[in-house]
Write the structure tokens for this entry.
Amino acid sequence: MRIAWFHLAVATFLLAADLAAAPDDVRVIVHPGNPVEALTRDEVTRLFLHKKTAWPDGRAAIAVDQPEASPVREAFAREVLRRSPAAVVAYWQQQVFAGRDVPPPERAGDGDVVDFVRTHEGAIGYVGGAATLSGVKVVNLKD
Amino acid sequence: MAVENSRGVRALAAALLLLALPSTSRAVEVGDGKLSVNGYGGWAFGSTFGGNPYSLGTPDGSYDNTRLALALGARPSEHLAVHLQLSMDGSLAGLGVGFDWGFAEWKFTDGLRLRAGKVKLPFGLVMETVNVGTLRPFYSAPTGIYGHGNIGATAYQGAGVASVLVEGVDWELDGDLYGGMLETDLDEPLPVAVESTPTVSRTVRSHLLIRDALGGRLSLTNPSAGLTFMLSGYGGRLEEFSSETSAFERFRVFTGGLSAQYLSDAWLLRSEAFGTDEFDGEGEANVSCYGEVARRFLTAWQAAVRGEYFETILHGQTPSLPAFFRHQEVALALSRWFSAGFVVRVEYHVVHGNRFARPNELASDAVSRVPGWTHLALAGAQFSF
């Protein structure tokens, strides 16, 4: 019985550690009907910080985020937005309480982000390198 | 022994399970952000030493500092947004409810928005979020600029535009321009500090209206470098209603100043300097500046230090008690951040001068006994979601 509990504890911790580990890479995804093939990091940043809210064809752009504690979100903040996660949180708190804007909606993880982007024509999201990309398109990131 | 070891292993397993679960806090949202509810608040205990009340502290110790605000945001369409914020101050005297701001915003383009209603004033680094404690390293914002010193008004009733003026790769110049009426409260220096004739002086809180106001703010930001620079100011016609004389006094007034901030994962550095001046006859000028430095360590802890100066200068009058027109302060804070939305703090403030640290009522023959130094110890918690 002791050994079973110990194995359960170790397995849980390893699973959590795996979930908490930084993903190999972050991929930006859009709806397959979106004609955009590539975006610069600056363009992605403007979409996720709501400084740009429409695609070139005029369709409303809907950014979707992941939870604050998500390692994928942390990697996205550092690698794509080029800001610390804390700076992004502080930016949205400032915007919200100044009455200027609200942050993008959140989805629980890669799978939920993919489902959201697949079902919203103007959506843009991000997922980890191991995510299953069924029904969405990966956008090339340019500097 | 076998039973104890078994319990210990189960406890370790449970602890590991708990460690594996992340925790977050988030606003309440409906319809993918079309309707959102945010809030903030806090409570603190403050005690002063030396005999003067100051800020949230009193000589006997004050528990009577509770505040909660709810902000509602609705986005019925791509171009229209409506915002509302109500605040509630709980005290032994009862519950006070205030209408902080409520306005509609029309977005013409991503870089141009029009606002109308009662709007948070775009002034300095923190006026728009002056009561949100989770956005700063101290419980309260600096007293001189953001308190009742007649420098920063909290909101305007009128119309304004917010615009992105110039944008580059990872930097941006934004502008706000507004017109209408500003409101603020001012704690006057005690009359006894100007004239020796009053037998009793009481703290007078004047409600100021600045009519026909025109103001704005320029903000230059470079987020990846963590830098923000601002130039803020407004001018108008000030009407000061004195509760002591029950009369209006009118002056032209101008307020302006500079702000700078550096923000990284570990460091926060802020500095601001503002001044305000009243024209047309006897009036006053107020100048204030502060600098604060905060450093994160051990992930969840933050240490901070702030230095502040404030002075009221009367036109055409020489105060008999200059200490009642000056405020100098050094403060230390230690904060434990449990998340970006919840923090517990302890602070210690040392104040020299009686512009804001003074008894609420004072007899003329007692002024010489008012301590020039005030110490404030404060402990509290603040949250936001």
Q: What stands out?
A: Chain A has a mean pLDDT of 84.
